[in-house]
Amino acid sequence: MKRRKPKPSVSLSELAVLHRRASRMNKPSQSHESLELLDEVLEACPAYVPALLLAGRRLQSSGSRGPDETRSGLRKARRYLQQAVLASDRSAASMVELGYFLYAAEGSTESAERYLRAGVEKALTVLEDGWSGLIDVLYAQGRLQEAMELGKRAQLLFPGSVRIATALTPVMAALAASKAEPTQLPRRRRSFE
Questions:
Q1: What are the pLDDT digits (tens) for 158-181?
Q2: 16 CB burial (10 A radius; 0-12, 13-18, 19+)
Q3: Packed helices 12-23 and 49-61: angle between N→C axes, nearest 10 degrees
């Protein structure tokens, strides 16, 4: 039995460049070339989620020649989107993309709803975490008013969020302290000698 040579490894940055090139090919006439680039990326790294998502999307909209090719493309799109859900540990983007596919391409409203709801819930969790972290960072930078405005906006969407309330606590205390202190000129430092 003849030994197969291992494929030369491709760096992640090279894969990202190929993916970006494919993502810029938006014209219908470029669909085939875009899919070839994405196939190249996925051959090198079958779990590269951005390429799985884009390939799934492009396969749905690529101009097929006939019904057999259309069915084959949709099966491949479904497989890519399912792989994206698995490879990304059920990321919000991958679940939303699969949900859209299940509804638009297969007419499966119940499955689509499950994936879309799960994707939205994950996205909201990420948004809450992101806003909480951003409030913390703005506070650390002394941008209290901006942190407070962001906190109010976050509380509209997440009224019972402990994370948002916890992030806002030092901001509100600092704002209250700055309002309570009268504006004074700095005093000279006293020597205790």
A1: 999 999 999 999 999 999 998 876
A2: middle
A3: 20
